[in-house]
Amino acid sequence: MASQKLTEYERKRLENIKRNEEMVAALKIHSTAATLSAATKRQRTKTYKAGPVKKPKAETPIVIRRSLRTRGMPPDSKGLADDFCENFDKTPKSVSPLKPQSPRVLGPISMKDAFSGDEIESNQVLVGTILSIAKKTQVDVSCKEELNGVNDIKDEIFSGKRTLGSCKSEASESPVKIEKRDPWLESLDLKPENVARIMPGRIMVVKFFPSSTMRMIAAGNKFGNIAFWNVDSKDEKEDIYLYRPHSGPISGILVQQYAMSKIYSSCYDGFIRLMDAEKESFELVHSCDDTVYSLSQQPNNSASLYFGEGRGGLNVWDIRTGKSSKNWILHEDRINTISFNSQNSNIMATCSTDGTACIWDLRSMSTRKPQTLRTVSHNRAVHSAYFSPSGSSLATTSLDDNVGITSGANFEDTSMIYHNNCTGRWISSFRGIWGWDDSYIFIGNMKRGVDVISPAQRRTVMTLQSPEMSAIPCRFDAHPCEVGTLASATSGGQVYLWTPC
């Protein structure tokens, strides 16, 4: 049957449809829409794998509990005492959702027994990776050469287009003259593949391995877990490893610079352990009844451990003899951080919940009543005190909403920079750290950002922000061998890795 002739209206309609299709094809709308749709699909965040926990069978019948009041009986206690205070010195009965048993073993724990993953073969993968890093890396030469060139970095190395929301400048909020910022700082970015939830719960400590050949991160949480994230791993299923060698909050992690197969960790349970990848075990180094709040070592001295224990005590532990060589009472309350001067390792800084940060000379400290070289006072607890890379300044972070900068030939000059440090109960306290020179301090922001403070300008000059950052960053570490590589950890077990574009 022959087709009927088109009317003028139908012919005009077909011409319009054809013209519109040609216009859409010329603008490439369909291909652009497909590209945008693929780009906006949310990438799944990397996370650790927890082994299944078997529920024990109930051996006794379930009894319905009824209060004394409903049973018409008087109370059997007077309630909480007036001086009741929740304290981390007491280890909770159940500290981890992964393993109910408490690893308070007065002896070594094998890495296999401490492993919390669902595939025990992954433990061997991590051991092999750490041993390979220890053999390849010569940090005493490579790191120093790279860090000495921080001030000589050329603009073109870090040149690149900034991503939307990567940096927020606060220069317009102050009449202070703003100096030109470093190009690498402007280019810092947070990529989706550099975001991972590596462990459950609140992260207390995050540390880079001091390796120039591989980016490996170690972190400890409040449950006694230690996680390792191999950022450069090509296999996403084999890049996060979770262990539980402790029974309480991790207070310190030390990766040995010249023997990265050995990693020290301290805990609120009073234990200090050494993870030895060669022996595949967590060796017990020290145990005490007091809480260990902080852990540190002198630069280029792996024979001694310095740790804060109990109320204001500092202990020096000789690793070779397995005994305490020195101990002092330096503060009226717990010591939160211990830092050593890079130019003179005998100069040490401690900070405390008693509201002070003190600078000491280890060569002139008496046993009975040590005298400080300088005391920096805050109105509330001081959660961190770190020497700058050059050793010429000390940065303190306090709950009184100030970041203190102490400098001068004899550390006689102290200035306070306002910063909101009130994180509340459920978020780890902020601890500002230095970057790769004395130019900037990095610290968490309650608006889910990273504030960059300039000691020279006495103000926050920039805030690093990203849509990928879904939680408040609390604890930080700067990669010792890669300028611009910054790790930030949250109270939800996430780690964000900022890198230059």
Detail the topology: elements first, then pairings:
Elements: H1 8-27, H2 29-39, E1 46-47, E2 109-110, H3 111-114, H4 121-136, H5 139-148, E3 167-169, H6 183-186, E4 188-197, E5 203-208, E6 216-221, E7 226-230, E8 240-243, E9 250-255, E10 262-267, E11 271-276, E12 281-287, E13 292-296, E14 304-309, E15 313-318, E16 323-329, E17 335-340, E18 347-352, E19 356-361, E20 374-377, E21 382-387, E22 394-398, E23 402-407, E24 413-418, E25 433-434, E26 441-445, E27 449-454, E28 459-464, E29 473-478, E30 486-490, E31 494-500
Parallel strand pairs: 1-4
Antiparallel strand pairs: 2-12, 3-28, 4-31, 5-6, 6-7, 7-8, 9-10, 10-11, 11-12, 13-14, 14-15, 15-16, 17-18, 18-19, 19-20, 21-22, 22-23, 23-24, 25-26, 26-27, 27-28, 29-30, 30-31
Family: Belongs to the WD repeat DDB2/WDR76 family.
Function: Specifically binds 5-hydroxymethylcytosine (5hmC), suggesting that it acts as a specific reader of 5hmC.
Organism: Hibiscus trionum
General description of the model:
The protein contains 6 helices and 31 strands. About 11% of the residues have low confidence. The chain has one domain: YVTN repeat-like/Quinoprotein amine dehydrogenase (Methylamine Dehydrogenase, Chain H, 7 Propeller). Strands 1-4-31-30-29 form a 5-stranded mixed beta sheet. Strands 2-12-11-10-9 form a 5-stranded antiparallel beta sheet. By secondary structure, the chain is mainly β. It is globular, with a radius of gyration of 28 Å.
